[in-house]
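Before our next group meeting I need something from you. Please put the record directly below this note.
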Amino acid sequence: MAVVVPDLSELFEEAFERAGLEMRSGYDLKTIRRSLNMLTIEWQNRGLNLFTIESGTQVLTAGTATYSMPTDTVDLIETQLRTGAGTSQRDTHIERVSVSTYAKQSSKNMTGRPTQVFVQRLPTEVTATLWPVPDSAETYTFSYYRLKGIDGLEEGTAGSAAIPQRFIPALVSGLAYHIAMKKPEAMARILPLKELYEEQFSMAASEDEDRNSVRFVPYVGRV
């Protein structure tokens, strides 16, 4: 039996019902759509969501240090310098440095094989500045894993939410909580809806963790 995921219109109705209300007017649709977009932005501030990780590459140009990442980039989490191709391809880790470390670098225009990257999270874009500045000795590719923004909803209710199934309960609970905060007749439900929302999001976030092998080696000191 297939897992049934309601479309957005049904999720919106469920959120209103949890708040003890009915979605009747066009404004109700507009306000819950706005809450959905605010909620997805909030989730980006709650930490690492594995479903928003995406890999990418940027071919480097000799003499050019700074590159703009895709427009929906929230942050870079892993960065490598790639050389060669096929079986001779090699990825070398690039160290991410802070603004103070980059600012103290006296030879910012020195060219060579990049070993460090300074990431700026600006209001409208995320940029990556490499040091040393790429030279023309080899063909370099900047390889990275990035956190991308969660797609919102500009209009209508067509389609499904741009999140995994495991986050659907948290999404509905969050929407119900947001709606209750905006409707005076649902004020009594704000606290229980908030508690349910936090519980549902915590459950989804704890399941959405990276699972890697861990080996514990006991320490044996000298006698």
User: Anything to note?
Assistant: The mean pLDDT is 88. The beta strands are 53-59, 66-68, 73-83, 90-93, 95-97, 111-112, 116-121, 126-131, 133-134, 141-148. The longest strand covers residues 73-83. The CA atoms of residues 84 and 90 lie 6 Å apart.
